[in-house]
Specification:
heterodimer; A: 404 residues; alpha+beta; Gyrase A, domain 2; Elongation Factor Tu (Ef-tu), domain 3; 19 strands; 17% helix; 32% strand; globular; disordered N terminus; B: 539 residues; alpha/beta; FAD/NAD(P)-binding domain; 17 helices; 18% strand
């Protein structure tokens, strides 16, 4: 448990949005000035051109500043048992040196967040997420022999994604990564310290995530930059990443589902099974937060909501569209949608109210209101449920990675 | 003698709201106000200092936007301005500020506890959920649970459906929230004393209970369910002072043909054959009316303005037992400059909002202990504002109006009446507390209006100076406010109605009681409430 301590800084009100450790570099490269607020820090919607940035992810290599991610360090002999209580998957099966995509729920089984759980050592973990969960994790940690520390601002994070990302790391002198498999972690030396490199990402492409102390951020950036420029390394903002993540079929809290601890309307909270995270739940674990409620809902006949991937006819993205069954009965809502440049298909992520999406999967339509020069085109387009990820790239998992 | 359709006793905000709706429905309405000005506890006047005070109520959030729109109050001069943040100064020379900016606010709490900074999100969600549940109840008449009238049954079913939509968890949370103490409620979320003290103030303000008294969590809700332009929970200043609310109402009322008589104190309600027929003024003048509506509180109305013989004994008993206890006072201070608070960094906008000096729940509770002993708190909590930072209309440039709400302050001092010497000593307690945190404060004072429950009762007519016309505890809400069986703005005397904060949904400058009362009166007269548009939906 961390002892609450009084922090002397009182000037934070002058600059409510703080800057990430990479800010000086991003600010220098930024042409769009499209800053937004990500967890209280300045982040970019795009750096120079959203579309070109997307193609950097899919053709060369892209760096995306993930420092605003919330990062908790959990250490101690009881850390594994605590995290096994906190999260849905079996943490005992997470070997040291590996990463797990996971999620955690409240006692009602409703999803608080999803995130990645890193295990750098047997008694050492890092939990990364969009939302803040310190009170919940501290409460869960009661009775377990472990410490919980918020290292969100102390640790800088950088996603390096794209087919050339391995080549960039190699050119930057990070050696030995040709054996690093998907979801593996390795610590490599940098500037007298270490940088933790994992083969993970949010793009469905070959890619890595790099974590280092905030003080080492700029030198890490420079090291990648000078090696990566000849390979087409580009900085990107969230909009390009968002396109890639939809193609990869990943869901985003606040967009594709509402975290239960932030839901003003209690009926908006979702069980893991209701947002396509059923595969994370390990029923063999006898105890974890939300287990009883999740299992009770399963016994009662399955989820009341279903999160699905859709392919929509024609080429107009269906963002925010209402889904209908038989063009008449309301069946759900589209939460994310793009025209996929890689697939040349119109794809979407949607939440349906059962039995739509479970028992009834045919005759689904989306109603798209496309505003074009002050006039709405009202479209009713057929939608087909398709498996996620929409896009599967062989290069994401092939080891050693190539450039193709 | 002219006979009015309706005569309204008291020109407070609820009285004027009711008067406006009734007049607009085509009735001939006369408002009788004992003072030389209208407004009740929502007034602003210059008492000779050159600075305009909001003499009683001082901030605006609860006033229903539906009423502002129906009665065209913006056209009649009402402007409500949102303000920034607030602050509690701590005894060790530090402070805890509140900011509108989400991240600045989180970082501020994190100075004291990173855990509390994050817990605040869940706290805000839970309180907002309670607000969302209660908001739609404000503009509806509370159903009588033992009535068999189709309308009461319909309303009860509506209420039951709302409960029916609750999960078991929400049901439990709501039942607990309505009954628990604000201290216990805050303990479930936070560990930082000063943060809990700051949030607890909304649970005890205007209430003769301490933060550890059961029922105070709901009082907090009552202060959170307002809004400024859709921003739920936000507070603002009425431009020109709180009198702007009632001046706009009076202007709207006159524009629709209504008549207001000031300096017209009502002595008695006249009855004939058990039915209200008008009122008699303290001058002896009689005013005849088909219906009489009282904006005075339930005690003043039924224990002073009505002959006891006209009322059933059980009703009188209930009215006498209705909790309406004086617990607060107020200092209105004219300053020749902005007071300095050395604890704050320069340029900190938190002085635009509510300022306090009570940094622990225990200090708040000790303050209440003094009240129980019949004394004003030796270490009172202040809810202090300087609206002239945002409103240039109330003071000459450079000068300021400081509104200083003070709690606890008993209706009698150790069982005897207040004296002028008591009042001055009470004021000194407050000024010396401010001066402890603001050097040079005394030298900036150019004038002061000190109000104990004695002054509040004498001027506004609030029994014991209770600002809500009755405590906002759950035993006195909904169909129990003010008296079971008489929670629908009617009284045992046909033709006599009440429309003040003693009725559902209670106190604060909200206007909902006045609007609801007007609707019931029109129903009895078989008139449709024209120009009363439906309450806004809560999406």
């Amino acid at each position: 448990m961390i002892a609450p301590r009084r922090h002397p800084a009182q000037d934070h009100f002058r600059q409510p949005l703080t800057e990430t450790p990479f800010h000086p570099r991003l600010a220098a490269l930024c042409e769009t000035e499209s800053w937004y607020n990500w967890a209280g820090q300045k982040a970019l919607h795009s750096v120079y051109d959203e579309e070109l940035e997307y193609f950097a992810i899919r053709s060369t290599a892209a760096v995306f500043d993930i420092s605003p991610m919330i990062k908790y360090r959990i250490r101690g002999p009881g850390a594994e048992a605590m995290l096994n209580r906190l999260t849905l998957r079996d943490v005992r099966k997470l070997a040291p040196g590996r990463v797990q995509y996971t999620a955690w729920c409240d006692d009602a089984g409703e999803v608080l967040d999803d995130g990645t759980l890193f295990r750098p050592g047997p008694q050492e973990f890092r939990l990364c997420s969009q939302g803040r969960h310190l009170p919940w994790i501290l409460d869960t940690a009661e009775g377990f022999d472990c410490t919980v520390e918020d290292e969100s601002t102390a640790i800088a994070g950088l996603a390096l994604q794209g087919p050339a990302s391995f080549a960039v790391l190699q050119a930057a002198g990070f050696s030995g990564l040709e054996t690093l498999k998907t979801f593996n972690i390795r610590d490599l030396p940098h500037e007298g310290g270490q940088v933790t490199i994992s083969r993970t990402g949010f793009t469905g492409d070959l890619g890595y995530e790099l974590f280092c102390p905030a003080e080492a951020a700029l030198s890490l950036w420079d090291r990648l930059w000078s090696a990566g420029a000849p390979l087409g390394l580009k900085p990107i903002g969230y909009n390009a990443l968002d396109r890639a993540r939809i193609e990869a079929g990943f869901i985003v809290p606040g967009t594709d589902f509402i975290a239960t601890d932030l839901a003003l309307r209690a009926d908006r909270a979702r069980l893991p099974d209701e947002i396509g995270l059923d595969w994370l739940v390990d029923p063999a674990k006898t105890q974890f937060n939300g287990r009883r409620a999740i299992m009770a809902a399963r016994a009662k006949g399955g989820p009341r909501h279903v999160l699905v991937g859709l392919e929509v006819e024609d080429n107009t993205p269906a963002v925010g569209a209402i889904l209908y069954h038989h063009k008449k009965r309301e069946a759900g809502v589209v939460s994310s949608a793009i025209w996929s440049p890689m697939l040349k298909r119109n794809i979407a992520i949607a939440s349906l109210d059962a039995p739509y999406g479970s028992r009834i999967t045919e005759d689904l339509w989306v109603e798209i209101y496309a505003l074009r020069e002050l006039r709405y085109h009202k479209l009713m387009k057929r939608a087909r449920i398709v498996p996620r990820p929409f896009l599967k790239l062989r290069r994401r998992t092939v080891t050693p990675p190539g450039l193709v | 003698m002219k006979r009015h359709d309706v005569v309204l006793i008291g020109g407070g905000h609820n009285g004027l709201v009711a008067a406006c709706y009734l007049q607009r429905a085509g009735l001939d309405v006369l408002v009788l106000e004992k003072n030389a000005w209208v407004g009740g506890a929502a007034t602003s006047r210059d008492t000779g200092t050159g600075v305009t005070f909001s003499n009683c109520s001082y901030v605006c959030s609860l006033f229903r936007p539906e009423i502002m729109r129906d009665l065209e109050l913006p056209r009649h001069g009402l402007q409500v301005i949102a303000y920034e943040g607030g602050v509690v100064f701590t005894e060790d020379g530090d402070y805890l500020a509140a900011y509108r900016d989400h991240d600045a606010h989180r970082r501020e709490i994190a100075r004291f506890s990173p855990r509390d900074a994050e817990a605040y999100e869940t706290y805000a969600r839970d309180v907002t959920r309670q607000c969302r549940f209660i908001q739609p109840l404000l503009m509806r008449t509370a159903p009588d649970p033992v009535s068999l009238k189709p309308r009461d049954i319909g309303e009860l079913l509506w209420l039951a459906r709302r409960f029916g939509n609750f999960t078991a968890e929400e049901m439990a949370a709501t039942a607990r929230f309505w009954t628990m103490s604000i201290a216990d409620f805050l303990d479930e979320y936070f560990e930082t004393e000063v943060l809990k003290a700051y949030l607890a103030i909304s649970g005890i303000i205007g209430t003769a209970l301490g933060p550890m008294s059961p029922g105070t969590a709901y009082v907090l809700l009552h202060h959170y369910m307002g809004e400024v332009d859709g921003s739920v929970g936000a507070w603002g200043y009425a431009r020109g002072g709180m009198g702007a609310v009632t001046q706009a109402l009076a202007s709207s009322f006159r524009a629709s043909g209504g008549t207001i008589r000031t300096d017209a104190a009502v002595e008695k309600v006249l009855t004939r054959g058990g039915r209200a027929t008008g009122v008699v003024l303290d001058s002896g003048e009689e005013v005849a009316a088909r219906r009489v509506v009282s904006n005075a509180d339930v005690k003043r109305t039924f224990l002073k303005l009505v002959e006891p013989a006209d009322l059933p004994e059980p009703f009188l008993h209930r009215v006498r037992q209705f909790k309406m206890r004086g617990s607060s006072g107020k200092l209105n201070i004219a300053l020749d400059g902005m007071p300095e608070f050395p604890a704050l960094p320069e340029g900190c906008r938190c002085t635009m909002g509510d300022m306090h000096f009570s940094d622990s729940i225990e200090r708040l509770e000790r303050g209440y202990d003094d009240w129980k002993a019949g004394r004003w708190s030796a270490d009172p909590f202040l809810d202090m504002m300087i609206p002239t930072q945002l409103d240039p209309t109330m003071a000459p440039p450079g000068q300021h109006f400081m509104s200083c709400f003070v709690q606890y302050c008993p209706p009698k001092v150790e069982g005897r009446d207040w004296t002028d010497a008591d009042r001055d000593a009470f004021a000194e307690t407050v000024v010396s507390q401010i001066a402890d945190y603001s050097p040079g404060f005394r030298d900036r004072i150019i004038g002061m209006e000190v109000r104990t429950p004695r002054e509040l009762e004498a001027e506004v007519g609030l029994t014991e100076g209770n600002i809500f016309q009755g405590e906002l505890t759950f035993d006195q809400l909904l169909f129990n406010r003010p008296v079971p069986g008489y929670a629908q703005y009617r009284s045992p005397i046909p033709g006599l109605y009440i429309c003040g904060s003693s009725t559902h949904p209670g106190g604060g400058v909200m206007g909902a009681p006045g609007r609801n009362a007007a609707r019931e009166i029109l129903r009895d007269m078989r008139l449709s409430p024209k120009e009363m548009r439906p309450a806004h939906d809560v999406l």
